[in-house]
Amino acid sequence: MSYFTENRGRYLEELKEFLRIPSISTLPEHKGDIRRAAEFVAGKLRQAGMEGVELIEGEGNPLVYGEWLGAKGKPTLLFYGHYDVQPAEPLEEWVSPPFEPAVRGENIYARGAADDKGLTLILIKAVEAVMAVRGSLPVNVKFLIEGEEEVGGEHIERYVASKPPRLTADAAVICDTEMFAPELPTLCIGLRGIVYGELVVKGAKQDLHSGVYGGAAPNPLMAVAEILCALKDREGHIRIPGFHDRVRPAAEAEHAAWARLPFDEKKYRDEEMGVIALTGEAEYGLFDRLWARPTLEVHGIRGGFTGEGAKTVIPAQALAKVSARLVADQRPEEAVAQIQAAVAAACPKGVTAEFRYLHGAAPSLVNPDNRFIRAAAQAMTEVFGNETVYVRSGGSIPIVGAFDQSLGIPSVMMGFGLPDDNLHAPNEKLYLPNFYRGIEAVARYLDLAL
Amino acid sequence: MSYFTENRGRYLEELKEFLRIPSISTLPEHKGDIRRAAEFVAGKLRQAGMEGVELIEGEGNPLVYGEWLGAKGKPTLLFYGHYDVQPAEPLEEWVSPPFEPAVRGENIYARGAADDKGLTLILIKAVEAVMAVRGSLPVNVKFLIEGEEEVGGEHIERYVASKPPRLTADAAVICDTEMFAPELPTLCIGLRGIVYGELVVKGAKQDLHSGVYGGAAPNPLMAVAEILCALKDREGHIRIPGFHDRVRPAAEAEHAAWARLPFDEKKYRDEEMGVIALTGEAEYGLFDRLWARPTLEVHGIRGGFTGEGAKTVIPAQALAKVSARLVADQRPEEAVAQIQAAVAAACPKGVTAEFRYLHGAAPSLVNPDNRFIRAAAQAMTEVFGNETVYVRSGGSIPIVGAFDQSLGIPSVMMGFGLPDDNLHAPNEKLYLPNFYRGIEAVARYLDLAL
C-alpha cells in the first residue's frame, strides 16, 4: 500500500510531537504535561475520524475515549494504549535529551518511544489510514487510552470494573509488548498475574541489644528468613499448600512452539542476565519457569541496621516485600489466602507474622485458536514476511486481567517493541521500521478480524 | 570512714563538672569536648596524687595515663574507665537536659552518669581518699582511661596490643558494668566475645524485573535467607561445623549460683523485653543462653526495595549484617573461618556468597577463685552489707579480652550501675548511694587486694 509509504514522514513528525510532551505520571509536577498528552491523543483520534472523542475524568489522570461504530453487525475491537511515561533519570546517561526525540540510524530515541507512545500511535495511525483511504472501517473500533500505566493504572481499573456499556467489545487489542527477536512477529498469549504484599514480623516491644538479649530474644529478621525458606525451598519449589492446584500446564503444542524459538541460552545467562547459573525448578524448562510457573520472590527486607560499620541490634520488627507471580488459572484472592495461611503456619516462636496484601492482578492466557488471535498472527506474518510466533510474558499487565474479568473479552497483544528498547531506562528507543510496519499490520488486521 | 561522708558534697560537685562536658565520641563536632574531658581526667588523677600523668596521643582520642608505684613488692592494679559518652538523642525525651546534670531523688541524671563517667570517677576518688588519709596506697595502681569506648576503642586496643611495659600489672579493674539488682553487689566474671561481619551475596550483573526473569534468576535476598537458615535452625541451634568444639560448659557451682539470683522471668519477658515468648536453645536454661552459649544474629539486610508501595525488583546484590557472640574458649579468628566455611557450603545455586569480617573481640571468663576476684567480692560485701553475687554478661567488652591476651591479666569487673540506668538512652542516671558506696568499696579493695 503506497499510502503508508507516502505518509511515513508525517507519521514520524507526529510521533516526535507526542514524544516531546514529558507526560511523566510518577511526578506530580508534570500534571500539566499529562493533560497535554491526553489532549494530544484526543486530537489524533478526531483526526483519525473517531467519533464521541472525550476525556473521561475521574480520580487520577484522564482516560481518552473515541469510537467508530459504523460497521453494523461486525465485530468490535477495543484498542488500548497509554500516553504516560516513566521518569527519565538518570539524565546524564542519555545520549540525546529524553524529551527531544532524535533519530539515529533506524531508531528514534526518546522517553516513551516504545513504552508506549510509539505503539499507541501505531493503533491510531492504522485506523486513520483505513478511514482515509476507504472512508470507513471493516469493523467497529473503540479506543481507551490511559495515563496512569506507570503508576498502577487505578483509574482505568476502576472504570473497567464498573463495566460501562460503551466498552462492550469482542476483543481488546493491546499494543504494549515486544517481539521475541528482531524481524520475528510475535503475539503474546499469556501473562503472569501477581500478588504483592508485605510480610510483617514483630518481636520485642523495642529494639534489643544482641549481647544482652541474644540467645533468648526472638529476632524478627531471622523469622523473616525462616518464613521465606518455609514458603520456598532451595530448589525453587513453592511450598504453599494448595498453591499449584489450579496451575494449568502449558499445552504440548505450546512447548513445541517454544522449542522452535530462536534463543541462545548461554547468551541470555552470561550477557543479558549476567549470572553464573540459571535457577528455578529443575524439572521445568526455562520458558515454563519464566512463563507458565508461579514464582515467589522477596524484593527487600527492612528492619534493624544496614548502614556502614557495625551495630548489634535485634530489631523489634522486620518487614519483607514479597510477591508471587501467578499463572492461569490461579486466582489472586485465593493465592493471598494461601500465602497468609502458609505464613501463619511457618511463623517461628516468639514473634507474630502476617502477610499484608498490597495489590494484585490476575494471570491471563488466551487460546491461540481464538479467531482474533489467528487474524492478528496472519496480519503480522503478511506484513513482516516471517511466521508469527506465540509467546507468553512472565510479567503482568493488569488491564488484560481486567478486560477478561470485567468485560469478558480476550486481549490480542501485538508487540512491535524489541528486547533492547531500554524501557524504563536511559536511551529508550523504537525501531522505526517496526513503527511503520506496525501501522500496516494493524491496518491489515482490521480486515482480517472481520 | 567519716572521710567519705564528709567529702560527698565535693564528690557530687566534681561529678557534675565531669558530666557537663559533652564528650560525645561518635560526633566529630565534639572533638574539643573530648579533649576537655581527657584533660579533666588528667587533672583529677593529679589531684588524687598520681604521678606521670599524661595524655597518650595517637590516632583517635587521647588515652589518659597516671600511676602510683610506691608500694614496692606489692601487686599492681590497672584501673580502666572511659570519659567519652554516647550521643544524647532523642533530646525531647530527656526530663532535664543531658549535659546539665540534675539530682532528682537519689539519682543524678545526665548523659554519661553511669556509662561511664560516674563509675570512672569512683575509681579516681577511691584512690584519692586513701592517698589523702594515709599519704600512700597499699598497692601499686595505674590508670588507663580511654575516650573511644563508644566508637570501638581502636586507640586503646592498638596501644594495649603493643604491650607497653608501663601497663605491666597483676589485674585490671574495670568499672563499666552493673549490679544484677539494687543492693546486690555484683561481680561480672565472664563476657561473651563477638565476631561481626557482612554476608555479601551477588547474583546478576544488574537488578532484574521479577516478572521478566522470575523463575530463572537467582535472588540474592532469598539466598541470604537460605544461608542464614542453614547456619542456624528454627530451634536456635547454630549449625556451623566445629563452632561449639571449644565451648566450655558453665560449672555446676556457677549454675547453682545463677539459680539463686533474684529473677522474675515473667517480668523479664513481659515487661523488660515485651515478647510473647523467650526463644533459643530449649535444652539450656535462660542464663546459659544469655551468658554461656554462643549466638548467631542477623542485624539488618540490605538490597532491593524497602520503600513504601511495591517494586518488583530482584536485586543484583544483597548484604546482611551478621554477628556471632562467642563464649570461652572460642577464638574469634577460628569462628570467622568456621562461619566463612559454613557460608560457602550453604551458598545456593546461581549466586556467590562470602562473609567479610569487620571486627571482633575474644570472650573472657575469670576463675572466681582468683585472689583479685575474691578480694573484690569481699570489699563489696563489706560495704554494701549483702553477699556479692557472681554473674556473667552476654555482651562484649573488648578491652577485657585485650588485657587477657596482650597483658596476660584477669579483669575484675566491679559493677555499680543498675539495670534501669538507661545507658545509651534518654534520662541516663546514676543511683547516688551506689556512687558513694562504690568509692568506699574500691578504697576497701585496695587493702584487700594486697
Task: Note down, in words, how this protein is organized.
The structure is a homodimer of 450-residue chains. The first copy, chain A, has helices at 2-6, 8-19, 31-47, 113-134, 154-161, 210-213, 220-231, 252-260, 265-273, 286-292, 332-346, 371-384, 398-407, 432-448; strands spanning 51-56, 63-68, 76-82, 102-104, 107-109, 140-146, 171-174, 186-191, 193-202, 208-209, 295-302, 313-314, 317-326, 352-361, 364-365, 389-393, 411-415, 429-431. Chain A is α+β, with helices and mostly antiparallel strands and 450 residues long. Chain A has 2 domains: 2-191 and 363-448, 3-Layer(aba) Sandwich (Aminopeptidase); 193-247 and 294-361, Alpha-Beta Plaits. In chain A, the strands form 4 sheets. In chain A, strands 1, 2, 3, 6, 7, 8, 15, 16 and 17 form a 9-stranded mixed sheet that branches. In chain A, strands 11-13-9-14 form a 4-stranded antiparallel sheet. Chain A is globular. Chain A starts with a helix and ends with a helix. The model of chain A has no long low-confidence stretch (mean pLDDT 95). At the A-B interface, strand 10, helix 6, helix 7, helix 10 and strand 11 of A face strand 10, helix 6, helix 7, helix 10 and strand 11 of B.
